[in-house]
């Protein structure tokens, strides 16, 4: 009997049992399947091992080489004298803007004071999350200036799109964090849009969020708004912001990012120090060389944060894709960046700090098979590699240039699956199911078995988007593809959206603050 | 600087270097990227660890429970007295058609004589492959009665479609094996189509292939044709066929499959003993229970093969999906079957036999995002789980009911990536790239570096289907999605196809054999 014949034969039996099971469990199902019911999920507890591709000797080699890079070549800290001063005091060799580090200095600074995990508080305490350890926090995509949906195609993102993605993330229990620049609201002046973005993350959701990093002043505004939200006494004792600091790879930190990072560190707010590499262009064309550079850059940045404020939370970030050596275009979902990601996860765990990398990355312009293969390859890798803070989990299209509405829905479904995967295999007596095997025996089926009836509701992940029906039923329902079904889902979610309560006094103080600050300077497009 | 800004800034630099690199390397690139150039790849050598989700204690528990199932419940061997006789002689308790096994009997039979790996010879010795150990052999999908392409939609498969998929597999260096029932040629009578299928695998390719299993006589015909191809003396000393034996789960072997398996075993030909489970219907609704049943069923079948002919090659197979407990439909690419797959890989390695599981499985009817997410999730899992014989690597749509032309092309691209992933990270001095880091230093780029120029041709996997160009260029080229691009690829491959040489005397003897055998009995549709 072929696989296929077996499949069809059983399908009829299964359906009979399935129908009986449908009655009156809609609510529970909704909660389990990752629909819009809210369960205050705050992270995924990992119960399966990490996947390690490098052995101890290989890891020591990469660590040794990274120290060689830090010692011989060094890192440039550009147009930011404060960093040079701190490095000189810490015993580094400062030559102009080039800083060279005695072997082991950066590692020992990080290991001495950087926390292995930290709580990021949300305005709703039930949504406060912990970043680090055996936890995975899923976060939407970050940075796209465009949005894409099936109805209107690709267009510049607006503040309305920004709010929409904040709302969709709020309504997705599989995403634990509201993220930061979920898209660039290009209808708001560059130098003022951080107010609207941060306000949206406060107003339309109660999940934790990220701060502005495009100018030190904007980081200060973010901290000020967080103080209005959480109260003057809350910061700097508690961490309420996790913000993204990209390294100007290779081997360079610029004043913008250093300035923002310094503001956050001074206020005990978390930063994700992320070497941002398209291998072959910003790092060597080999995986071992790229791993070496990532470790060197991240070590220098995280150590700098510890010089600014010992104990300030830092996350070891990594964004490594490969350029096409034929066209120069970035590529995603290919095997070499996956291998690098597994390796960086191991390096971060040896260092003892939380680890950030990417989720559903792809180069495709539309939510097609390319987008899905590439995104799944990256997401699976990130999950098995032990990423703690998974940026770009949902929505990413076109190498990060576009945030896709349908892509977001498709990715959230995958994110929900990751939470099941990381739970691993239940080995309880109930799960061992020997009584079910005894009850059913050879040649029968398990659909009506007592064990099946007792367990089916929580048994298998049920996709929010996949069509598993027969070809004929699928045809009757319009022969839709996954993107078309996702289109209906995000529209319904936005139509049903209800905002979480926000204290009107706090809301007013935030609106006042934004009005005052916006009036203090001219609009600018940089 | 956001991820996105960085991306755009570098893209221009990269493109400049990229153009220079394009000149005169088309041939090498084609070979590397898994295009249609043939390199006689015969398997993937695995150089990264397996991903293990269960610890030793958990594995011992599953093994203990499987022995409990074999001892207490037993397995039915239906309408096949020879099996009952062999089991009685081997010391099992035979009660009607139910066979119960003393603890450890099946395991010791398998471990005593089943080979840990075996060579499957191809008619072209350069294409002979080895199944087992640290190797992965990729095989197209098996069994679909329908085919699907963008031009004609879904329709019943014909012998022409069958030949087309044999040809496409032949032209795909990433697939090491021609497979078996790549689709069901429903325009040929059921009881005679095995002749045409086996002949197509001999005539239109020189890769190794699978035999007919739908009747013991058809297995005998397959062996006879293999003898005509390889010579009377070659079989039974050498293995030239690997054929798929699905268990009639739960806990039952039927006469059809037992008959075919016995023919192959007697002739020292390999069989893949595959519990075929839709968990919740043919196995318990829990992962641990399903793992227990898979192990019990596979052990009994592989041990039976060793009773028929000690030393005959057997592969521990597993096909485990989950039914939707709401509709009864099979689902694919979800996390529970992935966890089961990781677990079965571990159980197979502890037993010391080769391991078969699925590649790009999906429920989608079309090559859309659903198809790709589901397929990538399964393929990545199978690759990391250490599958030795990966059936259904390419083409599978609609739960195995349809073989997709575009899906095949998309999956082959992913299969090519798996071969890169499993190679792991090169740690040679060249790959460490310290000289490249010294040469380039902070703030510059690697595109023109000597190290990049020396290594770029073999550096990164280049997809055959993905579009990594700018949005504008993609628009100019017709705004295609991945399936549309795949459509052009398979048509070009078929148009360019050249058959491998086949000795005319052998060809004639096969055609004569088929003509004679077909004339000996009436057409039947079962």
What does this structure look like?
Two copies of one chain form a homodimer. By secondary structure, the first copy, chain A, is an alpha/beta fold. Chain A contains 19 helices and 19 strands. Chain A has helices spanning 3-21, 26-32, 56-73, 81-90, 105-113, 159-170, 193-203, 216-230, 255-266, 287-308, 335-351, 369-384, 405-421, 429-432, 434-440, 450-455, 471-476, 482-496, 504-519; strands at residues 44-45, 75-77, 93-95, 98-100, 117-120, 129-132, 135-138, 146-149, 153-156, 242-247, 252-253, 270-279, 314-317, 319-323, 330-331, 355-358, 389-391, 396-397, 402-404. In chain A, helix 6 packs parallel to helix 7 (193-203). Chain A starts with a helix and ends in a 7-residue tail after the last helix. At the A-B interface, helix 1, helix 3, strand 12, helix 10 and strand 14 of A face helix 1, helix 3, strand 12, helix 10 and strand 14 of B.
Compute the gyration radius of chain A: what is it? 24 Å
Number of helices of chain A: 19
| C-alpha end-to-end distance of chain A | 66 Å
Gross geometry of chain A: globular
Give the quaternary arrangement of the chains: homodimer
What structural class results from the helix and strand content of chain A? alpha/beta
Unreliable stretches covering 5 or more consecutive residues of chain A = 1-38
Q: How confident is the prediction overall: mean pLDDT of chain A?
A: 93
- Strand fraction of chain A equals 5-15%
Helical amount of chain A: 40-55%
* Largest sheet properties of chain A: 9 strands, mixed
Largest interface: A-B, 169 and 169 residues
The strand count of chain A comes to: 19
């Amino acid at each position: 009997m072929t696989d296929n014949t077996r499949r069809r034969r059983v399908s009829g039996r299964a359906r009979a049992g399935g129908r009986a099971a449908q009655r009156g469990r809609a609510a529970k199902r909704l909660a389990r399947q990752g629909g819009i019911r809210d369960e205050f999920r705050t992270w995924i507890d990992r119960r399966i091992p990490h996947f390690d591709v490098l052995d101890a000797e290989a890891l020591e080699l990469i660590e040794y080489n990274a120290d060689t890079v830090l010692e011989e070549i060094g890192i440039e800290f550009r147009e930011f004298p404060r960093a040079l001063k701190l490095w000189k005091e810490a015993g580094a060799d400062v030559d102009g803007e080039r800083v060279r580090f005695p072997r082991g200095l950066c590692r020992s600074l990080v290991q001495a004071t950087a926390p292995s995990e930290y709580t990021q508080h949300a305005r709703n305490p039930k949504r406060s999350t912990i970043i680090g350890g055996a936890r995975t926090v899923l976060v939407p995509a970050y940075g796209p200036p465009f949005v894409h949906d099936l109805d209107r195609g690709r267009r510049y993102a607006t503040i309305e799109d920004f709010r929409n993605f904040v709302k969709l993330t709020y309504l997705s229990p599989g995403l634990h964090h509201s993220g930061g620049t979920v898209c660039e609201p290009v209808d708001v002046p560059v130098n003022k849009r951080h107010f609207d973005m941060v306000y949206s993350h406060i107003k339309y959701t109660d999940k934790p969020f990220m701060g502005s990093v495009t100018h030190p002043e904007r980081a200060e505004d973010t901290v000020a708004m967080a103080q209005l939200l959480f109260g003057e006494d809350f910061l700097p004792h508690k961490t309420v912001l996790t913000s993204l600091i990209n390294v100007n790879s290779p081997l360079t930190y610029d004043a913008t990012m250093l300035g923002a990072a310094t503001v956050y560190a001074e206020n005990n707010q978390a930063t994700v120090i992320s070497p941002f590499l398209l291998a072959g262009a910003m790092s060597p064309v080999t995986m071992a060389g790229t791993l070496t550079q990532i470790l060197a850059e991240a070590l220098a940045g995280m150590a700098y944060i510890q010089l600014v404020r010992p104990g300030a939370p830092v996350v070891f970030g990594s964004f490594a894709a490969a350029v096409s050596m034929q066209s120069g275009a970035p590529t995603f979902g290919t095997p070499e960046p996956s291998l690098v990601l597994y390796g960086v996860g191991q390096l971060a765990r040896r260092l003892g700090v939380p680890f950030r990398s990417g989720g559903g990355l792809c180069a495709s312009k539309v939510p097609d098979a390319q987008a899905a293969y590439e995104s799944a390859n990256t997401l699976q890798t990130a999950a098995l590699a032990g990423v703690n803070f998974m940026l770009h989990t949902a929505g990413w299209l076109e190498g990060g240039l576009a945030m896709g509405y349908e892509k977001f829905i498709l990715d959230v479904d995958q994110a929900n699956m990751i939470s099941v995967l990381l739970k691993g295999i239940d080995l309880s007596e109930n799960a061992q199911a020997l009584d079910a095997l005894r009850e059913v025996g050879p040649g029968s089926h398990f659909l009506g078995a007592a064990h099946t009836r007792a367990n089916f509701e929580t048994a298998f992940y049920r996709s929010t988007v996949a069509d598993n029906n027969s070809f004929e039923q699928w045809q009757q329902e319009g022969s839709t593809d996954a993107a078309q079904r996702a289109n209906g889902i995000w529209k319904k979610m936005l139509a049903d959206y209800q905002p979480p309560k926000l204290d009107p006094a706090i809301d007013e103080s935030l609106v006042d603050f934004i009005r005052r600050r916006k009036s203090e300077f001219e609009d600018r497009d940089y």
